[in-house]
Amino acid sequence: MGKNIPGDTILHIAAVLAPSSEIPGAALQMQRELQWFKTVEDCFHQSLQRKHNLIGKTPRVVFTETHKELVEKGEKWMKDTATSCSVVAALIITIVFTAAFTVPGGTDSHGRPNYLHELSFEIFAISVALALFSSTASVQMFLGILTSRYAEDDFLFSLPKQLIIGLITLFFSIASMMVAFGSTFCIVISNPWRWVIFLIASAGTVPVTLFAWIQFPLLRDIFISTYGAGIYKQIKIKDVYM
Fold first, then answer.
1. What is the sign, positive or negative, of the torsion defined by CA atoms of 58, 63, 68, 69?
2. Backbone phi and psi for residue 120, each to the nearest 5 degrees, phi listed first
3. What is residue 22's predicted lDDT score, i.e. its pLDDT?
């Protein structure tokens, strides 16, 4: 907590950075600080929101000064996360784009896939398309995070929303890629080896499960912090006296 300045209002006090060790990640802590400050700010008239203390600082200026380091930490955390995930998404794009033009089972003399009317081929085509579209959307979300201005208010909704969409589409692209992988084996493996398909399909769930297990806690925290009730949204201040 910072030292109070003579003439500080409740808004000036609310604008000071508070220790939040229970909140994981600098970006989520910055989001929570913004939620708290805006909750208190909405309880006062605009004239009070622009009121200066004895050293000529408004509550917003105090908030900006005391949260400068937290904004920098949140920016670094966001960029590191987006960079790592965008590399994975770009790799998936490369794989599924190549797979889209490598027809499993070969083609006939007219260039049509030999297994065009097989269910496994239809699953392959759909899953490859879904993996390509979702991974492309994921890269776009992470690119938006990397090129963001990182203004204070971006941490309130814009950046968390992009990260949520990016993680969900990345998970969906990984799952679709594994389905395409399994359907390819179903096409190329002959009947006596059909039991291998079950083993391969089971193994294909491992990377999907691992990704969900690792990233779900982060996704849950961001989603609850952004769209949930939150600990400050339930605060109701009936009367404020100055």
1. positive
2. -65, -35
3. 67
* Dist CA 201 CA 178 (whole Å): 8
Q: Number of H helices and number of E strands within the chain?
A: 8, 0
**Span 92-110, average pLDDT:** 82
Exposure class string for 43-73: b at 16+ Cβ within 10 A, else e: bbeeeebebebeeebbbbebbeebbeebbee
Helix (H, G, I), strand (E, B) or coil at 107: strand
| pLDDT of 84 over the 80 cut | yes
In angstroms, rounded to a whole number, what is the distance separating the alpha carbons of residues 175 and 168? Answer: 11
Tokens standing for 232?
């400050």
pLDDT tens digits for range 18-70 = 766 567 778 888 898 888 888 887 777 777 777 777 777 888 888 888 888 88
User: pLDDT by residue (tens digit) across 7-20?
Assistant: 567 777 777 777 66
Spatial separation of the C-alpha atoms in residues 65 and 68, rounded to whole Å? 5
Residues above pLDDT 70, as percent of the chain: 84
What would the two tokens of residue 175 be?
């799952």
Coil, helix or strand at residue 169: helix
pTM: 0.82
pLDDT at 143: 95
Count Cβ atoms within 10 A of the Cβ of residue 42 and give its class: 0-12 exposed, 13-18 middle, 19 or more buried: exposed
Distance CA 49, CA 230 (A): 23
Q: Which of 16, 170, 21 is nearest to 87 (CA)?
A: 170
Of the candidates 17, 33, 15, 44, which has an alpha carbon nearest to the alpha carbon of residue 239? 44
